[in-house]
Amino acid sequence: MNTTPRELPFRIRIASADPELRPGLDEIVRAFPWRFSTEPDAVPVNFHAGPSTDGPALRLRREPDGGWRIDHTRPAGAFRALGILMGWQEAGGASPELEERTPFRSLGVMLDASRNGVPRVATVQRLLRHFALTGINWLLLYMEDVYTIPEEPHFGYCRGRYTHDELVAIDRYAARFGIEVVPCIQTLGHLEQILRWPRFRPLRDTGGVLCARDPEVEKLIAKMIDAASAPFRSKRIHVGMDEAHGVGTGAYRRRHGYEPPFETLVRHLDHVAGLCRERGLHPLIWSDMFFRLGSRDNEYYDLDAKIPPGVAERIPANVDLVYWDYYHTDPAFYDEWIRRHRALGAEPVFAGGIWTWNRFWATLPTSFATLRAGVGSARRAGLKDAFAALWGDDGMECNLLSALPAAQYFADLAYGSDLPLDRQCRGSCDLDSDAWIRASDIDPEPTRQTNPGKWLLWHDPLLNFLRAHLSPGLPEHYARLAVDCAGAAARGTELDAHLRVPARLASILAKKTRLHLTLGEAARAKDAAALREIADGLPALRDEIRELWRLHRGLWHELYKPFGWETIERRYGGLLLRLETLGDKLDAFLADPTTDIADLSNEPMPVYNEEGYVPIPINHAAAASPSVIA
User: pLDDT digit string (tens) for 480-518?
Assistant: First the structure.
């Protein structure tokens, strides 16, 4: 954090607080030293714990001596009130007296530690401080194979897995703020990472799915539950089971014959739930497989899906279903899906999403829109548990910290707050939320649900096969964004300095998009002047990409363990070499205009639709080459 002294209208003095708050308050004071003082002229703040009732989660009131009184029913309310007070302190204004309520017993964030980037313990601890100041009291740590099973050395091998002691350190630190940490693992699908190794291949049903009813699979799952739960105080464990595509259709069918997929799924769930029950653990699972198996098209959000009668009765009573929905902006859809989950016999846990997957910077406006609809519906329905998921699909190129404004927004929605987001983010995170939202324009409207800010970087500069999907206004858009982000990074706080990455990326995209828009046409027309201009600009473009690589590498090693960076680094290396090859081919043509550049001979054509709109996020492999390597 930035510890530079600042001119503030007042400093805060923690005058009194219950012992359970003291460890967390000490961490906040260490993180934001310029906001606090022990001198008599500092404004005193007194914390008062009340009984956990249906009353306000927090109340912030002025006291006769000019200090502040914070009443709270749980630590989350106390730390949130302090974050509100610090936001008004930074903004130079007097905080309003207020009280807030939330129906949520558990309000959380889920961190993905399995899609290439494993957040360092210090990163998780930093996020815990920020989350505490928003009023969050639940952290879910998603670990497919990145935790240690002593008897299974290939589990998480060379993937940056957490040690038992590292997870204990995370749990103990979270407890200082009253935050419960729940391990999220997988016990059926999403286990491609371990099933690649010969040690585990005999346990495979299909793809990344374990073979149910296999004795060795059942032994492994028991080890997984023991190892993942042991470091944590919580008695909850998320055992996954989402997107287990093809369950029961591979090795399982060869061994046991045909069985309805519902039967296979429920039988396996019953076994895993039994393992949890034996250990005194309360399991959660993602709910989508129940809906997918009732859909003709294997779709989670299929309005025509029919779950067979009797399935609800087969779901173990000790299992909570997590309804995840990161995409809809219509509250009525969430209302309907909560109703359908309740029809399965239990209150669902709601999981919204902060759009960090398949991109370099969180898409905050889209996150706001989906969270607003989803959290609003969950509040009206009276759900007791909700969290926002931060996924890292296709390599975790995204800066996790870019999600902080959306985490604040999520908490504000949950507490029914209408306080200005910029002040809230100043208080909890010390960042300029307007500038961070502006950085989301790396994926501009109307394409925010896709990811041009990523695929345009990795798109092959020579084959140029997605040229028909490029808007002619993109170079100017990215040029303006680069200036805005660079300015905010230079004048902002230490955390605002993270805007240097989207600033450099936008500058590159301005140049690279212009290259894609002009290169093929110039080559097919044998326009030597245009090709000379392009060739002359390539060295500067390569230099900027190298600078982005260095910035990104530094950021990665600050936030994540080193494992996984090799994947991203190869992407930069491949892009730079393709630009070298492009330069060599242009030089050859300019030296001898009879030289054929066959790579650029194809006329651009739409790939995704005739309108040119790209309806889905494009991953690195799909942007870097039109070939599928098998």
Answer: 999 999 999 999 999 999 999 999 999 999 999 999 999
Q: N- to C-terminal Cα distance for the chain?
A: 46
Look at phi and psi of residue 531 and say left if phi exceeds 0, alpha if psi is from -120 to 50, else beta.
Answer: alpha
Residue with tokens 């070499």: 577
Contact 354, 392 (CB under 8 A): no
> Burial level of 192, CB count in 10 A (0-12/13-18/19+)?
middle
Contacts of 588 (CB under 8 A, 6+ apart): 595
User: Three-state SS string across 279-299, please?
Assistant: CCCEEEEECHHHHHCCCCCCC
Determine which helix (DSSP H) or strand (DSSP E) holds 477, and give its type and residue range.
helix 474-491
**Element (H or E) spanning 181, and its range?**
strand 180-184
State the residue for tokens 């008599």.
Answer: 40
Distance CA(361)–CA(440), nearest Å, equals 6
pTM: 0.97
Helix axes 75-91, 421-429, angle to 10 degrees: 110
C-alpha to C-alpha distance for 181 and 532, rounded to whole angstroms? 58
Map tokens 């028909």 to a residue.
468
391 in Cβ contact with 357 (< 8 Å) = yes
Categorize the per-residue pLDDT at 448 as very low, low, confident or very high, splitting at 50, 70 and 90. Answer: low
What is the spatial distance between Cα 36 and Cα 129, in angstroms, rounded to a whole number?
A: 16
With contact defined as beta carbons under 8 Å apart, do 558 and 507 qualify?
A: no
CB 131 within 8 A of CB 139: yes
Distance CA 390, CA 629 (A): 29
Q: What is the mean pLDDT of residues 581-594?
A: 96
Which strand (E) or helix (H) includes residue 388? strand 385-390
Nearest-5° Cα angle at 590, 536 to 524: 95
| Number of CB atoms found within 10 A of residue 264's CB | 23
Interatomic CA distance for residues 107 and 385, integer angstroms? 6
Closest alpha carbon to 209 in 257, 245, 261: 245
Residues 396 and 619: their CA atoms lie apart, in Å, by 11
Q: Are 2 and 493 in contact (CB under 8 A)?
A: yes
The CB density around residue 302, as the number of other CB atoms within 10 Å, is 14
